[in-house]
Amino acid sequence: MQRNVLDAQLADIKQQLQAMGEQVRSALQQALASLQQGDAAQARQVVDGDAGINRMEHELEERCIRLIATQQPVAKDLRKVTAALRIAGELERMADLAVDIARAVIRQQPSPADPVMPDILRMAAVVEEMIRQALVAYVNEDLAAARNLAVLDDEADRLYRGILEELFSRRPDDQGRIAQAMAFAFIGRYLERMGDHATNVGEGVVYIHSGERIDLN
Amino acid sequence: MLSIEIKVEALHAWYGNDEVLHGIDLAIEPRSVTAIIGPSGCGKSTFIRCLNRLHETNPGARVAGHVWVGGEDVYRMDPIDVRRTIGMVFQRPNPFPTMSIFDNVALGLKFAGVKDRRRLRARVEESLAMAALWDEVKDRLHQPAMSLSGGQQQRLCIARALAVEPRVLLMDEPTSALDPISTMRIEELVQNLKQTYTIVIVTHNMQQAARIADQTAFFLDGHLIEVGPTSKVFTKPDDKRTEDYVSGRFG
């Protein structure tokens, strides 16, 4: 091992990505808590917290670019850096979707007592597990965990379809209920997109280790 | 079936009793650049010196195996023809020190029997132009070659090699004694020359191999460990030893 500087910088990038991932997870948890409790103030915290996550992405990007410019990584080292750039982008998008959920809570005030709520929370639990596993896969270089994201994504998609069916079967007898149904449909959609970004992280993990491009979505 | 310009089969080389190449098989397409990389002492220079039979000129040196260039068995050719078919450029520019710029390039042609002065001049100009040196020397062709800078001298050596119209150009670390600008000029030149010639280049500079080679071969301890498209060798090599070498973890 003669590349201590490069190895140390790669380890830093990994640590920073992990920290960013934890922030994204906590943004989602907070957005869901605000939804469950109808708590606009808490939702606002998610919106405000997004700038910090964006900053983390830019810092990570800077580090990766500096590393490429100064260390000229190749082969697996290079794959680690390019995958880190991509994963940072995926995490940032996930954080934006958590913000979208929080904004829906603030603007449309979806009722915590709505009958679709348990399904939304079930789906959210699956998506949260996907984010957790994507991070585990990345940090522990765990290919099985990465590939398992495809299974979880199917589960999230199945729950999403169920939610839509339930919402569209409602009778549109008043304007307020239509707005409610729309809000939940969007929230389901945001969660579904988050799951897709988590599978992209898994694809990045597989690429780092094998150079292979697979589709987990 | 892709056409093959250089074919090497079961190539072994010795210095006295020391076997330094242990059976190399390699195929090189025409009009391509192949980089040979590997740590010092891995046999890469010996390998290209076997391609033009320079290795056997060392006392006690020996070669076994086959090398074909353009379908011809190099080890059955007249050595003079071998040198004409396969040009070579070395690590340090080595123009003939007492000769002018013009004579350095013209000498090989004179040996080849070109007497007509107009033809001689035209070929010298063409060779200098191909080596991207013409514009810099056209008004001083009869000045000593040693009046040129190191980078210019190396391009003069390339022009000298090209003058006799070889099929193959071997380059043994051609930029290791040059500054970055001269290095870039040689690299650009290699890109242009490969439209006409098949080029095999030994380099210690991994980024150089990555920049200019179509194919990269990694040698270690006299064995060819891995050969493949350069982009693959530098992004996803098959062999762990290649990965460790190209990522700077040994050598």
SSE inventory with pairings:
The complex is a heterodimer of chains A (217) and B (251).
Chain A: H1 4-37, H2 40-71, H3 75-108, H4 117-140, H5 143-168, H6 175-210
Helix pairs in contact in A: 1-2, 1-3, 1-4, 2-3, 3-6, 4-5, 4-6, 5-6
Chain B: E1 6-15, E2 18-28, E3 33-37, H1 44-51, E4 61-69, E5 72-73, H2 79-85, E6 86-89, H3 101-111, H4 117-130, H5 134-137, H6 150-163, E7 168-172, H7 180-193, E8 198-202, H8 206-212, E9 215-220, E10 223-229, H9 230-235, H10 240-246
Subunit structure (chain A): Homodimer.
Subcellular location (chain A): Cytoplasm
Family (chain A): Belongs to the PhoU family.
CATH homologous superfamily title of chain A: Phosphate transport system protein phou homolog 2, domain 2
> What is the global morphology of chain A?
elongated
Instruction: List the secondary-structure elements of chain B in sequence, H or E.
Output: EEEHEEHEHHHHEHEHEEHH
Oligomer: heterodimer
Q: Return the CATH architecture of chain A.
A: Up-down Bundle
Separation, N- and C-terminal Cα atoms of chain B: 36 Å
Looking at CATH, which topology of the domain at 6-95 and 168-246 in chain B would you report? Rossmann fold
* Count of alpha/pi helices of chain A: 6
Provide the low-confidence segments of chain A as ranges: none
Spans where pLDDT lies below 50 across 5 or more residues of chain B: none
Helix content of chain A: over 70%
Q: What integer value in Å does the Rg of chain A equal?
A: 19 Å
How do the strands line up in the largest sheet of chain B? Answer: 6-7-8-3-9-10
Biggest β-sheet strands, sense, barrel of chain B: 6 strands, mixed
In the CATH scheme, the class of chain A would be Mainly Alpha
Strands of chain B, total number: 10
Subunit structure (chain A): Homodimer.
Function (chain A): Plays a role in the regulation of phosphate uptake.
Keywords (chain A): Coiled coil, Cytoplasm, Phosphate transport, Transport
Domain PhoU (chain A): 18-105, 120-203
